[in-house]
Amino acid sequence: MESNGKGVSIDGVPLPYETGEIDFGEPGTNGQHSFYQLIHQGRVIPCDFIGIVKSQQPVYLEGEVVSNHDELMSNFFAQPDALAYGKTAEQLLKENVPQHLVPHKTFCGNRPSISLLLPSLSAYNIGQLLAIYEHRIAVEGFVWGINSFDQWGVELGKSLASQVRKQLHVSRRKGEPIEGFNFSTTTVLSRYLQASADVPSDPSTLLPKM
């Protein structure tokens, strides 16, 4: 996202299309309780599923049919299938799903995903994984005609943060009013300074630099 989030080409010409991808994810089955609903029945979001053959911490609990790792891997194999093939209204009716729930339980399928199965979670294999994504980002940059190796957008935020830092210093130490910011930022900064006025700012309370 930092490399390919650009609005102009490598020659400085405004692009007639959007660039950059939005990446997010979760380990294990955490994603099922945060964004899987979105990828299954909301907007189409291409997914990468990354699985590991050999667990670093396999646990077998008495009474369970599989280990904790096989439990996770069961979801690794199942979720891409669910995205690809979905579930039709006809299938749901054969399962005696109530008619009023059929539209809500129907999955259209045909949602793209990639499954990557690593032998183990070793430094070498993680390096291979990073190389795949670095290569993909570079190729996207070539295709879009942008420079994937600069981040000028980050610099603006840093510059503005420097101005805020100076303002906080003079407001806390010298009681100077907030100046040079838009109305919204001025209002929020004022609120922040008022609410944190009881926080010690005496240098004697600060930790020494290491």
From TrEMBL:
<keyword id="KW-0324">Glycolysis</keyword>
<dbReference type="GO" id="GO:0097367">
    <property type="term" value="F:carbohydrate derivative binding"/>
</dbReference>
<dbReference type="GO" id="GO:0005829">
    <property type="term" value="C:cytosol"/>
</dbReference>
<dbReference type="GO" id="GO:0048029">
    <property type="term" value="F:monosaccharide binding"/>
</dbReference>
<keyword id="KW-0963">Cytoplasm</keyword>
<dbReference type="InterPro" id="IPR023096">
    <property type="entry name" value="G6P_Isomerase_C"/>
</dbReference>
<dbReference type="InterPro" id="IPR046348">
    <property type="entry name" value="SIS_dom_sf"/>
</dbReference>
<dbReference type="GO" id="GO:0006096">
    <property type="term" value="P:glycolytic process"/>
</dbReference>
<dbReference type="GO" id="GO:0051156">
    <property type="term" value="P:glucose 6-phosphate metabolic process"/>
</dbReference>
<keyword id="KW-0413">Isomerase</keyword>
<dbReference type="InterPro" id="IPR001672">
    <property type="entry name" value="G6P_Isomerase"/>
</dbReference>
<keyword id="KW-0312">Gluconeogenesis</keyword>
<comment type="pathway">
    <text>Carbohydrate degradation; glycolysis; D-glyceraldehyde 3-phosphate and glycerone phosphate from D-glucose: step 2/4.</text>
</comment>
<dbReference type="InterPro" id="IPR035482">
    <property type="entry name" value="SIS_PGI_2"/>
</dbReference>
<comment type="subunit">
    <text>Homodimer.</text>
</comment>
<protein>
    <recommendedName>
        <fullName>Glucose-6-phosphate isomerase</fullName>
        <ecNumber>5.3.1.9</ecNumber>
    </recommendedName>
</protein>
<dbReference type="GO" id="GO:0004347">
    <property type="term" value="F:glucose-6-phosphate isomerase activity"/>
</dbReference>
<dbReference type="InterPro" id="IPR018189">
    <property type="entry name" value="Phosphoglucose_isomerase_CS"/>
</dbReference>
<dbReference type="GO" id="GO:0006094">
    <property type="term" value="P:gluconeogenesis"/>
</dbReference>
<dbReference type="Pfam" id="PF00342">
    <property type="entry name" value="PGI"/>
</dbReference>
<comment type="similarity">
    <text>Belongs to the GPI family.</text>
</comment>
